Amino acid sequence: KQEVTQIPAALSVPEGENLVLNCSFTDSAIYNLQWFRQDPGKGLTSLLLIQSSQREQTSGRLNASLDKSSGRSTLYIAASQPGDSATYLCAVCMDKAAGNKLTFGGGTRVLVKP
Amino acid sequence: KAGVTQTPRYLIKTRGQQVTLSCSPISGHRSVSWYQQTPGQGLQFLFEYFSETQRNKGNFPGRFSGRQFSNSRSEMNVSTLELGDSALYLCASSPTRPAYEQYFGPGTRLTVT
């Protein structure tokens, strides 16, 4: 059974500092891994998706890496801003037979202080 | 293109009642998945529908059910509500299965009293 863990559960950084968010999973036979952002009481916004054959994806200040062999993904957010304050969730999709079922980590709640 | 819409956005029900939540996917998307989010359990997969057929089901009791219509809109139903069913219910849509990316709606906040 796939288990996804995100540590730490909460993180507070001063504005301008780079953010490093970690995600680990127990079963390396994933189809893809997706990072989401969630603002309080809201739905999820997709940030980056990494296919199992890829090592990293970049979008603006965001960069996500994937190391399947060690069961880890890292989300880097450069030069953090107060608007980056939110909960960040990673989710894995297993093989094609699993369809669109995502297994989520518990999330990391980020606070960027001005 | 309009995003995923969920109705109603907020709902208060009494223990023992039943509730129906609705999800309209992005136009052209044929897959709809449902998730329950609670502070204690986090985000948990409920079920996935594709072309009106349930393709995948999470580990929830039979009180949780769903369906998908020919226009891809989906509903989920919870019967005999319990206090522990209080949660944010999210649906996600995607054009295919498995999808390259999934798009989530704003959720329905259900409170059971």
Q: Looking at the structure, what is the overall shape of chain A?
A: globular
Number of H- or I-type helical stretches of chain B: 0
Q: Tell me the helix content of chain B.
A: under 10%
Please tell me how large the radius of gyration of chain A is.
14 Å
Point out poorly predicted stretches of chain A.
Answer: none
How many strand units of chain A?
11
What does this protein look like?
The complex is a heterodimer of chains A (114) and B (113). Chain A has no helices and eleven strands. Chain A has strands spanning 4-5, 10-14, 19-25, 32-38, 44-51, 56-59, 62-67, 72-77, 86-93, 102-104, 108-113. In chain A, the strands form two sheets. In chain A, strands 2, 4, 5, 9, 10 and 11 form a six-stranded mixed sheet that branches. The mean pLDDT of chain A is 94. Chain B is 0% helix and 53% strand. In chain B, strands 2, 4, 5, 6, 9, 10 and 11 form a seven-stranded mixed sheet that branches. Chain B is globular. Chain B starts with a strand and ends with a strand. Chain A binds chain B through residues 31-32, 34, 36, 41-46, 49, 89, 91, 93, 96, 98-107, and chain B through 4, 31, 33, 35, 42-45, 48, 50, 55-56, 58, 88, 90, 92, 94, 97-107, 109.
